[in-house]
Amino acid sequence: METLDIEFVDVGEDFLAARMPVTKKVYQPDGILHGGATVALAETVGSAAVAVFNRDPGVITRGIEISANHLKSVKEGHVTGTAKPIHLGRTTQLWEIKVTDDDNNLISLCKLTTIRLDKS
To answer: How far apart are CA 63 and CA 8, in angstroms?
Structure first.
């Protein structure tokens, strides 16, 4: 989180949001936001949401898959990732993370699948 300057900015009953500045630190060679940095933001906020909303101390949760559709490019400002649950099953969970720019344009749509495991 420090490397990418990710900071948490909002939390509600069913969501968690974090933002990241778009600077040269996260550019791809063409001078726009790198898809890998976008996915790092998405996985950070999705995994943190799992931790925030997991109320069972006997369970740990691990990510098992993440996917992203990049819809628009960004050159400056900030992007915000907002994680919301789609499915909260006993074993698997599916989270949607929408990444938007400062004007609330959808930049990427990501999905994170997690699995709940008993602590041993």
So the answer is: 19
pLDDT for position 53: 86
Residues spanned by the domain of 54: 7-118
Number of domains in the chain: 1
The tens digit of pLDDT for each residue in 39-59 reads: 999 999 999 999 888 878 888
Q: How far apart are CA 99 and CA 103, in angstroms?
A: 11
Q: Which spans in the chain are helix H?
A: 35-53
Distance separating alpha carbons of residues 23 and 14, to the nearest angstrom: 30
Condensed to tens digits (0 to 9), the pLDDT of residues 64-85 reads 999 999 999 999 999 999 999 9
What is d(CA 85, CA 36) in angstroms, rounded to the nearest whole number? 22
Catalytic residue numbers? 43
CATH of the domain at 38: 3.10.129.10
If 0-12 CB within 10 Å is exposed, 13-18 middle and 19+ buried, where does residue 32 land? middle
